[in-house]
Design a protein that fits this description.
single chain, about 280 residues, alpha/beta, about 45% helix
Length: about 280
């Protein structure tokens, strides 16, 4: 099982293919296998790297009492160091997108291209968004301790479908299959991860420092606040583009993998065609 030391945890990762490097960061309460469709499609031309974020999957937890998106971004930097990747395209979805934007803003020289999918920036754009992103997330911790996160999340999906519209959760059965195939998340780790995401609005991100070509993707059936956040991110990041993934919900890379992967491929071709020598150097070990 391939792992490397990143700060105080052993981080599990999968590395496929050869070529310019692309790093994928999954959403909360799943694991690296969320990216299997993209890894399968892109590893013929690129070195694809997907890993389990601290608290998730085969990386598992740590003794720290609390987590933060800042910590997750530090772990990403430590992973790149351990794998001898100086510069890479970074693709993050949902919580992974939060991690990616923090890392890109603080280490712009290490990011060749950036994909932010089904995610949000720190700024809360309305009271209803605060309720969904912070208050409701924190409120899940106690029920999860009592009945487990699987049952609580099914209830949350039901509520989202009722209040935000059918399709907002996408093909949720795919997410359930990912969870069934990997290690079960510890309840304490769930609480630390959820609290980190719920506190993201306290994180400072200077979007003006992001210089890499950036693609913002969101499922066309996403919740309204997520669609607003996608537009906001595209405005904040100079020169970025935004696209809706047809038929996509909150995990649009799984709901419409062909469209999603083609969009990433276009960005990678743009990024790595400008300086192929630098691109090759970035993936050397």
């Amino acid at each position: 099982m391939p792992t490397v030391r990143t700060n105080d945890v052993e981080t599990y990762y999968e590395r496929r293919g050869e070529g310019p490097p692309v790093v994928f960061i999954h959403g909360a309460i799943v694991d690296h296998s969320q990216w299997d469709p993209q890894l399968d499609a892109l590893s013929d031309e690129y070195e694809t790297i997907a890993y389990d974020v601290r608290g998730h999957g085969r990386t598992g937890g740590s003794p720290r009492g609390r987590y933060s998106v800042d910590l997750f971004a530090d772990d990403l930097g430590a992973l790149l160091d351990a794998l001898d990747v100086e510069r890479a395209a970074i693709c993050g979805l949902s919580t992974g997108g939060c991690i990616a934007q923090v890392f890109a803003a603080r280490h712009p020289d290490r990011v060749a291209g950036l994909v932010l999918a089904d995610t949000f920036g720190p700024e809360l754009l309305s009271r209803s968004e605060w309720l969904q992103r912070s208050a409701m997330l924190r409120a899940t911790v106690l029920p999860v301790r009592l009945v487990g996160y699987e049952r609580v999340e099914r209830a949350m999906v039901w509520l989202q479908e009722r209040f935000s519209g059918e399709g907002v959760s996408g093909d949720y059965e795919q997410i359930e299959r990912i969870r069934e195939s990997g290690p079960k998340m510890a309840t304490d780790e769930f609480a630390k991860v959820i609290r980190a995401v719920a506190a993201f609005h306290r994180t400072e991100v200077d979007f003006s420092t992001i210089t890499a070509p950036t693609l913002v993707l969101y499922g066309e059936n996403e919740a309204p606040f997520m669609r607003r956040q996608a537009t906001k991110l595209a405005v904040e990041i100079d020169g970025s583009t935004v696209e809706a993934v047809p038929g996509g919900g909150h995990a649009s890379n799984l709901d419409n993998p062909h469209f999603f992967t083609d969009a990433i491929r276009e960005l990678l071709e743009e990024v790595y065609s400008t300086d192929p020598v630098e691109a090759a150097d970035g993936g050397e070990e």
